Amino acid sequence: MTDYFAFYGLPLSFNPDMAVVKQQFYALSKKYHPDFYINESQEKQAEVLELSTVNNNAYQVLSDPQKRLHYILEFKGILKEGENYALPQSFLMEMMEVNEALMDLQFEPDAARLAALKAEVATIEQAISAEILKQTVLFDNLNAAAQDDSLLVIKELYYRNKYLIRIRESIDKLS
To answer: Which PANTHER family does this UniProt record tie to the protein (predicted)?
Structure first.
């Protein structure tokens, strides 16, 4: 896995300086633009194309908070492909109630109940987003030894948020 932070000369951070990310993206876009290497060897052109692709991917990931969160957790080995992560029972019970309300609304549409459910989910999302921000800022200020425990907390929040995104998408389909 390519270290996008190292590629941009930045320390690993959940909250990097976005002005620097953008500045690095533009500088490397110029440096690795394939048109500047048209007269080079096939190997050099392939290398530059690869670096250009890495630059584009790095910018897409580092400039999007959700993608950046996923990337760092994966980069640190905290997220595993196809992992079956178990969320806390209390959260699942709360989400079960939301899902039941969603099913009811599919069979018996009710604009007022839908609006109330949207508001409830938005409140839960805002609380999780605030906690993610709090934990990621904390992570960025911890020493390497303490960061591992912090990553486990962030991982759980990531999965809660991911679950809520799916619920919000279901709500949006009913709107």
So the answer is: IRON-SULFUR CLUSTER CO-CHAPERONE PROTEIN HSCB
Contact 57, 2 (CB under 8 A): yes
Main-chain dihedrals φ then ψ at residue 165, nearest 5 degrees = -60, -40
The enclosing H or E element of 173 equals: helix 144-174
Last-in-domain residue among 63, 81, 104: 63
- Same domain assignment for residues 93 and 27: no
Distances (CA, A) of 170 to 2, 44, 46, 83, 85: 34, 48, 43, 23, 21
**Structural domain count, the chain:** 2
Class of residue 56 by CB neighbours under 10 A (exposed 0-12, middle 13-18, buried 19+):
middle
CATH number for 100: 1.20.58.970
* 71 part of a folded domain: no
Query: pLDDT tens string for the chain (175 positions)?
Result: 999 999 999 999 999 999 999 999 999 999 999 888 999 999 999 999 999 999 999 999 999 999 999 999 999 999 988 888 999 999 999 999 999 999 999 999 999 999 999 999 999 999 999 999 999 999 999 988 889 889 999 999 999 999 999 999 999 998 8
